[in-house]
Design a protein that fits this description.
Blueprint: H1 3-16, H2 20-31, H3 36-43, H4 49-88, H5 107-121, E1 125-126, E2 132-134, H6 135-138, H7 149-153, E3 158-162, E4 168-171, H8 177-186, E5 190-199, E6 210-220, H9 225-240, E7 247-254, E8 257-270, E9 273-276, E10 285-296, H10 298-303, E11 312-319, H11 320-328, H12 341-347
Parallel strand pairs: 1-5
Antiparallel strand pairs: 2-4, 3-4, 5-6, 6-11, 7-8, 8-9, 8-10, 10-11
Helix pairs in contact: 1-4, 2-4, 3-4, 5-11
Bound molecules: 3,4-dihydroxyphenylalanine.
3,4-dihydroxyphenylalanine binds next to strand 10 and strand 11.
Length: 365
């Protein structure tokens, strides 16, 4: 038998295989259990020692060259397959965006981006804190001691267990605990906003068990109510994109601020709808309660590890969902969290529409 010729024929067929399947069929044909070369190897057993000595190396050489050829061809075919796939899956980055992009930005996300943009321009950083809080950060450090009625007013979701320090664990009822965490972590001076989710066991058309707030905190030397008023006015004018936003500060009470002020914003009734702008005292106008604020209570500054004789500050807290409803005209808060794609399709924002101050932070058509 001419092993060299058998080998050449096998290598030619392997070299001509165009598909991985065809190559695998050849491997079985030559080297499989019933394969022709496997068969040749079996004949060695029946040979005389002398014959085996001359023929054996030839058959082994044949098997080795076929094995090597199969491996080489397999690699070539595999890289050809990969190259074809890479060529077919090329993305042309110069193509325009699809005419009808799917998906949109939730109004809450949009408003959070707008807030970050506006306050960044005023030199505020964005701070965050945990949604699972302990009652010290959420209440005690904010001058709401154990027996304080404000604890009951907050409709708190408590966890059954305490943390390792023995503190009751809860879902934060407001973003105010981030005030404490920021002071303890970074010291003073501070200029932050702290946006995020908060939780209360309450549910109707204007209350959902989870909603969003943004907290503001400025700690520095010589801070006064004047700074608070200017900051809120500047923020609300930029947010509602109207120069005629008028604020009214009313004395109020929050345990964590002293003095405390409730901030109302003037609106006009237009076709039965409240449109922000102008003084609420004009005929056909009114005042709408918008946010809580005040000068940070000395006890809160001390709980934050700072000396209240050295540092003063102001704080405010406002509902983000409410800001979105007022600006973009939604009237049922529950729809925000229904996950209804039709609602999002109507009220959602384009992912490409990044809020910037230079053109007004709101969405453009
Ligand atoms: N934490 C208050 C709430 O959830 C809102 C608030 C009021 C925050 C006054 C403040 C503030 O920082 O000064 O009802």
């Amino acid at each position: 038998m001419d092993y060299a010729a058998t080998g050449e024929a096998a290598l030619a067929r392997i070299g001509a295989a165009q598909e991985l399947d065809a190559l695998e069929a050849l491997r079985v044909e030559f080297l499989g259990k019933q394969g022709s070369i496997s068969g040749l190897l079996k004949t060695l057993g029946g040979m005389s020692p002398e014959e085996r000595q001359t023929v054996g190396p030839q058959i082994h050489a044949l098997r080795e060259s076929v094995t090597a050829a199969l491996a080489e061809r397999k690699e070539a075919l595999e890289s050809a397959v990969l190259n074809a796939r890479l060529a077919a899956e090329t993305v042309d980055l110069t193509l325009p965006a699809p005419a009808a992009p799917r998906g949109s930005i939730h109004p809450v996300s949009q408003v959070l981006d707008e807030l970050a943009e506006i306050f960044a321009d005023l030199g505020f950083a964005v701070a965050t804190g945990p949604e699972i809080e302990d009652d010290w950060h959420n209440f005690t450090a904010l001058n709401i001691p154990e027996s304080h009625p404000a604890r009951a007013m907050h409709d708190t979701f408590y966890f059954p267990d305490c943390d390792t320090a023995g503190r009751k664990m809860l879902l934060r009822t407001h973003t105010s605990p981030v005030q404490i965490r920021s002071m303890l972590q970074h010291g003073a001076p501070i200029r932050i906003i702290a946006p995020g989710r908060v939780y209360r066991s309450d549910s109707d058309a204007t209350h959902t068990p989870m909603f969003h707030q943004v907290e503001g905190l400025v700690i520095d030397k010589g801070i006064t109510l004047g700074h608070l008023k200017w900051t809120l006015e500047t923020f609300l004018k930029a947010f509602f994109e109207r120069e005629d936003i008028v604020l009214r500060l009313r004395p109020s009470y929050f345990p964590f601020t002293e003095p405390s002020v409730e901030v109302d914003v003037g609106f006009a009734l237009v076709n039965g709808k409240r449109v922000l702008g102008g003084s609420g005292d004009e005929p056909g106008h009114g005042w709408m309660e918008l946010l809580g604020s005040g000068m940070v209570n000395r006890k809160v500054i001390a709980a934050g590890g700072l000396d209240p004789d050295e540092w003063q500050g102001f704080a405010f807290g406002v509902g983000v969902d409410r800001l979105a409803m007022l600006k973009y005209g939604m009237d049922d808060l529950r729809a925000f969290f229904d996950g209804d794609a039709r609602w999002l399709g109507h009220y959602g924002f384009s992912a490409l529409d990044v809020p910037t101050l230079s053109v007004g932070v709101g969405a453009r058509a």
